[in-house]
Give the backbone structure.
Amino acid sequence: MKGLGIIILSLELRKNNAIFLKLQLSLMTYDDNNIFAKILRAEIPCKKIYEDDFVLSFHDINPQKKIHALVIPKGKYIDLDDFSANASAEEIVGLIKGINYVAKKLGMSSDIGKGYRALANINEYGGQEVPHLHFHLFGGERVGKMVE
Ligand code: AMP
């Protein structure tokens, strides 16, 4: 479910073993004007690496390593949590396969290269700036410490 918020129903077992039905309303909505949505609609350009039915990949505008690619799903998903909860199995497989195609195309996948780092920032504490799910692929050199 996209755009209008997400309603989550869950059953909780409390200490007296009573079962409670919990209703949670998440008000996260997808912003159609985010920069990656505009790239997907070809309203602004990108340095495209790869595209198929499920993903678009392009070079990051402000590369942090020798190779810094982005892989984004074509569907409107805010972050990895939204994607995991709401994307179809086909879309999920498509994104994971897409990451591998791009890594191969850039010579970084472990079968032909020396590896890389795939990273997704999620929401505020994850430091996510663009609210359309994206994986960063860093490579072409040793990537270094995992977190600051
Ligand atoms: P994050 O902080 O995980 O949301 O990362 C957003 C990334 O998008 C940053 O690395 C930006 O440099 C990158 N970015 C922002 N605008 C563009 C753009 N027009 N084309 C390519 N990459 C972009």
Q: What stands out?
A: The first strand starts at residue 6 and ends at 13. The pocket of adenosine monophosphate is lined by residues 35, 46, 58, 60-62, 70, 121, 127-130 (CB under 6 Å). Residues 119 and 136 are 5 Å apart (CA to CA). The chain has a mean pLDDT of 90.
